[in-house]
Here is the input.
Amino acid sequence: MAAERSDGVAPEVFSTKDMSRRRFMAGAVGLGVSTASAGTLLAACSGDDAKGGPTVEDPLARAGGPESTPNTDPIYPDGYVGPRASHKRPIVKEKVTLRVAVPQNSAVGDWKENRFTQWYEKTTGVHIDWQVVAGEAGSADAMTKVNAMIASGDVPDVFMNIDFSPAQQMLYGSQGLFLPLNDLIDEYCVEVKRIFKDYPDIKELVTANDGNIYTMPYVNDCFHCNCGIERMWIYRPWLDELGLSMPTTLDEFEDVLTAFVNEDPNGNGKRDELPLMAHAHPGWPAPLSNFFMGSFLYNPGGPASNRPNPWLYLNNGKVDFVANKPEWREGLRYQHRLFAKGLIAKESFTQDLEALQRIGDRKGDNILGVVRAWDWGSFLTIDISDPEARWHDYVAVPPLKGPDGTAIAAWNHYGKAGNNAGFVITNACKHPDVAVQWADGQYELEAQLRASYGDLGKGWRWAEEGEVGINSKQALYKALITWPPEDGMWWGQLGLSYRSNDFRLAEAVDPKAPTFEKPLYEESKKYYEHRQPREMELPPLYLTEEQAAVTGELAVAIENHVTTHEAKFTMGQLDPNDNADWQAYVETFDRMGLDRYLEAFQAAYDEKYA
Here is the structure.
């Protein structure tokens, strides 16, 4: 990463697209690429940055993509937008082998022996030589192995589900390692073009600032996922026992927590109730601020594991930061007051998910009143077969009105598809048009269902006329298993995805015994009603290597400062009512170089959207 200057000021942010060898090497290292990898990359790549992509016409592949006919088995709901079913002929006239690098994944198991892999090879005629990278998708271990591949010069034809950032895509694309896919998509990719038609903003999201598309899209338009980082759950039987209504304001919420502590809602005669608890699971924490700050201002949320641009938002087109605003202080004062009254469990800032789940699954009397967590499975065991299971009794707390009536839910408008790489083709690939068609076929409806549920007739079936989906429309498919499938039967949400909102909500449900997807959809509507305007959300951006070096260096320091001080201010190690404590917190951001951090994001935003 770019070195901080001795005066504590972050490096300058460059926006020029021309790179000398020295600047390329510095930028590559700033993106987490070793010096050796960067040097090898310069030697190996052509440096041709022409838009569009290769003009190779592979005689083994059919121009325009494989022949296909509609599959008439599914019944589509009215107004359905999403993947469509078709019978596709093999992609190639004779067998082609592609070398594809993928991350390790326990749900997939052995990529070669995986049941979906075998079906898909038979369907496409394309054989895959799997290059399995140690480490789960997006992990540091996986990227270390990938960097070693690049350094050795022995790159595969394709990297799939390797988490190349937008900045890395542009860097490797500008040097010729990653091929532009624009022309290949136009020529061969029926399914991707369907996605771009259904979701025009997705094409914009995956198009780099240089006009090229370097990765195939990964689409998961998950309604409930768009508010998961802020959901708060309350045990409804305790409200009923005490004759309380669902709180709608911060003051009412405080009164409810106080009643949970003082009025023995579980009726065991013991003062054992935990009014409010969260967790700080590594890599997937549940900060209280992701919920409470919405009563004071729009808080896009954080940390980075929850949001790609944590605590950043757009203020009339200008990139700004929320965690140093006066309203943020008011939110910390509220959390501090709750903690001082014994209404927040101190373990909220230290415990992992396993510890929280042990409390949620406690035998006998329930002691957990309110939980800040993604969904029920975060804090107790979900038993779909048991209508009396405890998870049924937790319902979402809607955004609460603050002192001035503010109640904003941080809805992730761009959550349907990010711009981190799902599928890139390298300059080592001799058959890029075969590779892009192999990717495109994964978006077809039956392929999506097999990759998600396993075999047709065993893991799922087509819905019958009259069966109803999660959204109460005609269903499209019905799961025959309790999801997820057994390991080795599916791709564990890897590969390429086109799970539109309509697709996800078209799963058939039994009205008398709905799966957790149905109530999760209904509970999430409470947040959708309070969502912030789309224009306030900072979209995923393509940063240059210099911008990424600046933001990468500062992001960790900023994240640590925000998260540790939320805990300190809440638990009373620092006092949010003390002007000196608050001023020291705010001024630390300035010394870190917050202005340079914002300038980098502003430059990237302006280059693409201004």
